[in-house]
Amino acid sequence: MNTKHIAAAVLFAGSLVITACGGGEETRKVPEGVKMPENAPSAEGGAAAGLITAADITLGEIDNAMVEKGKTTYDVKCQACHSTSENRVVGPGWKGITQRRKPEWIMNMMLNIDVMLESDPEAQKGLEQCLVRMPNQNLSKEEGRQVLEFMRTL
Ligand code: HEC
Fold it and tell me: Atom 2 of ligand 1 has which residue's CA nearest to it?
């Protein structure tokens, strides 16, 4: 390898770090005027695959007791890879996640990551950007719901 090649390699690696998962503005933003439907067609196919659908989740006022429990789970099982800011660690930061993702999608990323990586284009995009497969954290549905509640406060 001559110096030119090395410089090119360094530049390339640098651009990877910058684009990988970073803010993700271009890829993650819902286009203006597009409202995400409560019951996207994928929700039905999802139910068949054992995924959580919009009908399984009720969001009310923020429940502080649930937030506390969700935060504890986050501290133990998620913090190594996810920050509560916009910054990526290994996976995307969680700030504002409930504004850019549907609750059932978030729940399925927590509880059914393998099915999601197989069938969901957004999950696959995340893998492409982060270059790491999110490992299944074996949360119960209840724990997942508590983490979702915690996310709603970010
Ligand atoms: C070993 C690192 C690691 C751990 C630990 C981890 N994750 Fe992840 N997570 C990732 C990676 C990498 C991605 C992006 C992969 C993808 O989208 O396919 C991701 C993506 C996600 C997403 C989708 C985020 C988005 O905006 O696209 C959610 C939600 C999520 N993780 C929840 C959790 C929860 C909840 C925990 C803890 C119970 C957890 N993760 C623990 C690595 C991790």
Answer: 81
| pLDDT in 10s for each residue of the chain, 154 residues | 555 565 555 555 544 444 456 544 444 444 455 444 444 445 455 666 689 999 999 999 999 999 999 999 999 999 999 999 999 999 999 999 999 999 999 999 999 999 999 999 999 999 999 999 999 999 999 999 999 999 999 9
Q: Which of 21, 29, 72, 81 to mutate to test the pocket of ligand 1 (most atoms within 8 A of CB)?
A: 81
Does 137 sit in the ligand 1 pocket, CB within 6 Å? yes
Which residues have C-beta within 8 Å of that of residue 94, sequence separation ≥ 6? 82, 83, 84, 151, 154
Nearest in space to 86 (alpha carbons), one of 74, 76, 99: 99
Ligand 1 lined by 135 (C-beta under 6 Å):
yes
Give the ligand 1 atom nearest the CA of 137.
Answer: 38
Q: Ligand 1 within 6 A of 24 CB? A: no
End-to-end Cα spacing for the chain: 47
